[in-house]
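Colleagues,

For the teaching module next term, I've prepared a clean inverse folding example: a structure given as tokens, and then the sequence designed for it. I'd like students to try predicting residues themselves before seeing the answer, so please don't circulate the second half yet.
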């Protein structure tokens, strides 16, 4: 790990990961991860994880994602770089199941009507595939374009549409915080909320975030 001022950087190569085949179960390895201060520090909101996926080495990437426990840190930014075949493999990896901010950059060669090489950028979207995680193409950069038109921010800060995603909640009657009545005794059945503190919070959130 290298530090400079308030910035820190960790370099991890494939050899170091493969030299510890049971990294997740190795106490010394886990302790080293905690001591780095990058994976568990709540104040480190500007964290960015760069993954070289150029060889489409899914095994190595899986080990890194599991070791870093990225799924427990949904606000960590992730950028992968590699070939086209790695787009879906990386951005839809189970280790990123809670990740909100993930990009993939891949090389693009000139087409019939183009003379410049460029890069294509893809983004992980959490709810775009009928309420489930998917991948969307943002566009491509080349030497003549300063950026991707129509995308001022590569990392989306707020979800505009949950695409019918079903959220699962566990509720318990605990008035005045939460009060409801069951419409059926079957597990997973619908409930009707009564006026309570929690009900008002849910109603305020649904109006703001557009869900029912």
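(Answer key — instructors only)
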């Amino acid at each position: 790990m290298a530090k400079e001022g308030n910035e820190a950087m960790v370099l991890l190569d494939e050899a170091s990961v493969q030299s510890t085949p049971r990294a997740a179960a190795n106490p010394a390895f886990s302790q080293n991860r905690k001591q780095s201060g990058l994976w568990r520090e709540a104040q480190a909101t500007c964290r960015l994880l760069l993954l070289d996926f150029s060889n489409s080495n899914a095994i190595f990437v899986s080990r890194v994602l599991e070791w870093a426990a990225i799924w427990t840190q949904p606000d960590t930014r992730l950028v992968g770089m590699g070939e086209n075949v790695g787009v879906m493999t990386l951005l839809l990896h189970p280790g990123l199941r809670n990740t909100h901010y993930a990009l993939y950059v891949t090389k693009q060669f000139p087409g019939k009507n183009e003379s410049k090489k460029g890069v294509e950028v893809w983004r992980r979207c959490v709810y775009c595939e009928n309420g489930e995680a998917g991948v969307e193409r943002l566009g491509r950069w080349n030497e003549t374009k300063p950026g991707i038109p129509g995308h001022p921010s590569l990392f989306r800060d707020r979800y505009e549409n949950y695409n019918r995603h079903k959220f699962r909640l566990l509720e318990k009657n605990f008035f005045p915080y939460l009060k409801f009545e069951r419409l059926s005794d079957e597990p997973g059945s619908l409930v009707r909320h009564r006026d309570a503190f929690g009900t008002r919070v849910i109603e305020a959130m649904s109006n703001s975030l557009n869900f029912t």
